[in-house]
């Protein structure tokens, strides 16, 4: 037991803590402090950054199983994101850094965490800033709106009938995210999206698996027609660029 350090305990599951705690009350106290906010678990169940990472890690690790239920994963990761205490001091530095991006007229990305099975970034948009249509090859995503208001359009890529037939996207959702709301995507559904901010917006984005060289290489940006394809509702022709 001497070799355990604080982070090791933090990364242990909560049931694991309870089991250890029967024999080691002092460790239970440490665990409670680590997993809660200021030593207490608030009624609404807010969890601090370390506890959040532990829980996401546990869920995201399931991607290595033969059968990974991505729909179930994004549901669970979204529920965890909604419980994240954004006031946690562990996040204060990242939110402080976002001030450096104000006025630079582009979307800013700040890496919060990268592990083998997932990564988390803080993305900041100023009013009117947008990210055009792009996909996330073989990945899932959970976007938590921490601040602001942003429109998110999601699309599925329709199977091409023939090699020379047009590339078509089906718009499956358009949502306006505000503080405390989430948007999700899986490798099969809503995988393509575009975003445009109404006001200063900060998103906490969780991607599982994380980007690597291959996924970056496979990532595709699309130019999408503004008018529906052949008048078909929510179907748009796209070209890769
Ligand atoms: Fe994206």
Characteristic terms for this protein:
alpha+beta, 28% helix, Jelly Rolls, binds fe (ii) ion, 7 helices, single chain, 31% strand
List each distinct ligand once: fe (ii) ion
Strand content: 25-35%
CATH architecture of the largest domain: Sandwich
Order of helices and strands: HHHHHHEEEEEEEEEHEE
Shape: globular
- Enter the CATH topology name of the largest domain: Jelly Rolls
Let me know the largest β-sheet.
6 strands, antiparallel
Q: Please report the first level of CATH classification, the CATH class of the largest domain.
A: Mainly Beta
Helical residues, percent: 25-40%
Which strand order do you get reading across the main beta sheet? Answer: 3-8-5-6-11-10
Q: Which radius of gyration do the C-alpha atoms yield? A: 20 Å
Please, how many domains? 2
**Going by CATH, what is the homologous superfamily of the largest domain?**
Jelly Rolls
Q: What this model shows, in words?
A:
By secondary structure, the chain is of the alpha+beta class. The chain folds into two domains: 35 residues, no CATH class; 179 residues, Jelly Rolls (Sandwich). It is built from seven helices and eleven strands. A six-stranded antiparallel β-sheet has the order 3-8-5-6-11-10, with no helix packed on it. A hairpin with a 4-residue loop joins strand 1 and strand 2. The protein is globular, with a radius of gyration of 20 Å. The N terminus is likely disordered. Bound molecules: fe (ii) ion. Fe (ii) ion binds next to loops. The site of fe (ii) ion has 3 residues, from loops.
């Amino acid at each position: 037991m001497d070799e355990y350090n604080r982070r090791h305990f933090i990364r242990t599951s909560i049931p694991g803590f309870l089991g250890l705690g029967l024999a080691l009350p002092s460790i239970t106290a440490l665990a409670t402090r680590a997993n809660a906010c200021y030593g207490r678990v608030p009624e609404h169940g807010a969890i601090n950054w370390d506890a959040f990472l532990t829980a996401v890690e546990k869920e995201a690790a399931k991607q290595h199983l033969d059968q990974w239920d991505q729909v179930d994963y994004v549901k669970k990761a979204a529920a965890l994101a909604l419980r994240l205490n954004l006031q946690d001091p562990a996040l204060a530095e990242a939110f402080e850094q976002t001030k450096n991006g104000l006025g630079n007229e582009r979307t800013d990305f700040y890496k919060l965490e990268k592990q083998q099975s997932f990564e988390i970034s803080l993305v900041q948009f100023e009013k009117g800033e947008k990210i055009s249509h792009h996909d996330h090859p073989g990945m899932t995503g959970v976007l938590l709106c921490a601040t602001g208001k942003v429109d998110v359009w999601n699309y599925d890529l329709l199977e091409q009938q023939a090699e020379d037939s047009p590339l078509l996207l089906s718009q499956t959702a358009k949502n306006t995210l505000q503080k405390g709301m989430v948007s999700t995507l899986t490798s099969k559904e809503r995988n393509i999206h575009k975003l445009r901010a109404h006001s200063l917006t900060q998103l906490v984005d969780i991607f599982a698996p994380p980007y690597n060289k291959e996924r970056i290489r496979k990532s595709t940006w699309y130019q999408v027609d503004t008018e529906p394809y052949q008048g078909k509702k929510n179907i748009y022709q796209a070209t890769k660029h």
